[in-house]
Amino acid sequence: MNYIFETQMEVRDYECDIEGIVNNANYLHYIEHTRHLFLRSLGVSFADMHARGSDAVVVRMNLQYKVPLRCDDLFDSRLALHKEGIRYVFDQDIFRASDGKLAFRAKVELVCLVDGKLAAHSEYDKVFAQFINTDTP
Predict the structure, then answer these.
(1) Is 17 noted as a catalytic residue in this protein?
(2) What DSSP element (H or E) covers 87?
(3) Cys-Cys link to 44, which of 39, 51, 100, 128 (CB 3.0-4.6 A)?
């Protein structure tokens, strides 16, 4: 995988279920936070984009849970990005820091709504140009 962004996080005790492992829904928070940090690293504020009438919304996810994370585990959240038509596709992996094992894998597809309507988004295309070919078929 050609990762373009990585951040490290720590599992908090309240994210674990009765089995002592991270509840499955929390992985979605981890990968969303990673995408938002990625945008900030490029000088883009998700909140500012929304205030200007542009929203990137998730339209599809494919999730794979591999090995569990537990309380206090450190993990590395990484992402890669490509574009398919007007969809931005994030390939996101989470690795347990202690042993480097893949804990979670996701393919997340987003589209943009501009003033509430599905549309191509030239500002995102410009920001992401260094990472993806923005030519649409």
Answers:
(1) yes
(2) strand 87-96
(3) 39
Please enumerate in sequence order all residues whose Cβ is within 8 A of that of 40, keeping only pairs 6 or more positions apart, or say none: none
Phi-psi region at 112: left, alpha or beta (left = phi > 0; alpha = psi -120 to 50)? beta
Strand partners, 130: none
User: Which one of the listed residues 17, 72, 93, 115 is annotated catalytic?
Assistant: 17
**Element spanning 24, H or E:** helix 24-41
Longest Cα–Cα distance of the chain, Å, equals: 48
Q: Is 72 exposed, middle or buried (0-12, 13-18, 19+ CB in 10 A)?
A: exposed
59, 87 in Cβ contact below 8 A? yes
